Amino acid sequence: MATAKILVLPGDGIGPEVTTQASEALRRVAQRFGHDFRFEEALMGGVAIDRTGEPLPADTLRRGEQADAILMGAVGGPKWSDPNASVRPEQGLLQIRQHFGLFANLRPVKAWPALVQHAPLRPDLLEGVDMLFVRELTGGIYFGERQEAGSGDSAYDTMFYSADEVKRVTDVAFRAAQGRRGKLASIDKANVLASMRLWRRTVMTLAEGYGDVEVEHLLVDAAAMHLLTRPADFDVIVAGNMFADILSDEASVLAGSLGMLPSASLGTGTFGIYEPIHGSAPDIAGKGIANPIGMILSAALLLRYSLQLEAEAQALEEAVTRALDGGARTADIAPPGMAAMRTEEMAQAIFDQL
Ligand code: NAD
Fold it and tell me: ∠ CA 2-348-264 to the nearest 5 degrees?
């Protein structure tokens, strides 16, 4: 029997709607496999700004430090998106990742056989699509020095990487490739950016120690195209913070919807933050129609990476597959004309398969 303390950060918009279902999925897994999972909830994002004035209150960090893993919904929304505001929900995301040293963000993307018929890409292109993005999460342009003059008409951001930052995330990617199909695509913009020439040099040096992994270097603009023209060729993809952020959203089209994709943010130990790759979706928040699958699959990653419960992770993932095979569809993945399920109906369809 495993025991675990899980901190839940529902956040804003559809965050609370999907975290409720992911926590329930974990409760049901615990019940079925005889584990003892304890849940606590804390503030993060816009809701935290409203209550405490800060997107990531010290109390939330303290509780996170006492937990084995964090399950996080999404933060942000129009209420807090004034570009002149000094405090923004998204600052909390960057702070929490940095606080826990979570430098590698794993984003698995696969094409679901049950969904390919209605995907925007031809079904033959989607056959066998199964890739893992490894995104560098605590460096690069999102963390570099920036200047945003209050009344000025210019601003800058800085893309900075050290060889050590590139090496530790690329190591994660190489090891992941060894456990998969043995292929790694490294994405950069080495033809223009100095930081990306360092990226490529570092990956090339590291590759010498991984003779069993086939490495391909792609410029980010070409990669954006290759992801749609030959998606099944990709196995593990490693990229810096911003490029992987953008490319993995693009790749969500291959999975049918942004609402389908989970992620795990990891550092050197087993602690991690698990969240869907989508945002707070203010356009559908409060309607009870959000797709909970990205969040529920993030809970499966929590079982796998933080709790080392592989059979339990697979049981949850298989329940999702069977629910989809059985025709369960929320609005974002339903074919035109089909009556879509609400969030809790989709979650129930998954729990029924567990
Ligand atoms: P978004 O991911 O919230 O939404 C993009 C589109 O996808 C919307 O049409 C939305 O309805 C749809 N969508 C997203 N998740 C869905 C789901 N589970 N089910 C069904 N449809 C879903 O991106 P956005 O609109 O660019 O951003 C909205 C807010 O979220 C912004 O404030 C942004 O900063 C924030 N954001 C937060 C995170 C995070 O918390 N990690 C990530 C991205 C964006």
Answer: 50
